[in-house]
Design a protein that fits this description.
The protein has 18 helices and 15 strands. The chain is of the alpha/beta class. It has a seven-stranded mixed beta sheet with strand order 1-4-5-15-10-11-14, sandwiched between helices. Strands 8-7-6-9 form a four-stranded parallel beta sheet, with helices on both faces. A two-stranded antiparallel ribbon has the order 2-3. The structure holds pyridoxal-5'-phosphate.
Length: 457
Amino acid sequence: MDNTVRRHKYLLTEDQMPTTWYNLVANLPTPPPPPLHPGTRQPVGPQDLAPLFPMALIEQEVSTQRYIDIPGGVLDVYRLWRPSPLYRAHNLERALGTPARIYYKYEGVSPAGSHKTNTSVPQAWYNKLEGTTRLTTETGAGQWGTALSFACALYDLECEVWQVGASYDSKPYRRLMIETFGAKVHRSPSALTAVGRKLAEDPKNLSGSLGIAISEAVEVAAQDEKTRYALGSVLNHVLLHQTIIGEEALLQMAMAGDTPTHLIGCTGGGSNFAGLSFPFLREKLAGRISPRIIAAEPVSCPTLTRGVYAYDYGDTAGMTPLMKMHTLGHDFIPAPIHSGGLRYHGMAPLISHVYAEGMMEALAVPQTECFAAATLFARTEGIVPAPEPTHALALAIREAMKARDTGEETVILTALCGHGHFDLAAYDAYLGGRMVDENFDDARLNESLRSVPTVDA
Ligand SMILES: *Cc1c(COP(=O)(O)O)cnc(C)c1O
């Protein structure tokens, strides 16, 4: 046995926790294209969004201010689990025989077991301040529903969650956790909404999708003045709230005396990836560091790598504003892969813009490679990752193996955005040899791209 003492974790004190969120828009050479009203196709104004979101969040959505203060009440709740730890993966490095140094920022310590509470808490907070009594939302794998249910419990708000049918059926424990925090959960598509009843007429929609669940939650929120809608990813204000991850990680990498050459995160709607990478991108744009910034997505939902960059709806029914983003088409129904959180047809407009401007890269990874990486990670680092960040781990391992072959100095920082304690059915499929890699061919891609609307520039 090698008994060398190694430093595994870098912890900040509560006093060192950052007190502002970082808004990347303030530092971009060109602003991202604005969202358009689905009816008029003109840029949306604050009044268009007011039925769905409280004004404070709408202001953050369009803000160009570089730093935004985190309210004291939100900081207070963050302190339940923040600052989150940064780990050096010595055991994984040794197992790989790589000279690369691998760090991971772990968000699984939150009450929901993922990064989603970083935004559910402020979203519930601002809604409470503005008189909302009920929030509606969608959830895929269930992490966002859990996070919002927890935040609503804190502020005594009602919470109703439309859960993607395939996840509702395969992840009963997630639903029970959401219910334990006090929310109501509906299997989507549901009979409770006009859009759910309509979409359920087509058998291909019965397993549900995030796009369908969003349509249902938006329909219910739009009908009641005291009810608003909350989104767990994609929007600028959500990415903003997640930047506390990267701000902490910058301080922790400094504690470790190391500078990343690679930042790797998984992208569903893009929020955890943005949360980790945007503060580092600020430093990169300022010329202080120069890491490659790489998004990892599933082969079966390859939004950045095979989607088109175009205006599309955020939901299946076309009720949301049109957003310029990488999209597979808003009626895309992904194969029921295990990584529920990465099955969204679109990408955050801010990430899409950054990607289109060449400031980051993206790669698609097959799920069996992800779970091979995940089991190695569990056996060396002691954490069973959520299926989503296994995509980032797989790419981190690819880069670490390259470093072994080339000897090139490689320092990887990856976002381990959640644990997989409720995703053990996926591990069961992998360990039992029943997990297959979906082949997403051009014919299917082209069919789903047909739903992307034509919008004149
Ligand atoms: C929701 C979720 C994702 C996908 O959403 P992003 O906005 O891309 O972060 C990924 N991982 C986990 C653990 C999630 O809960």
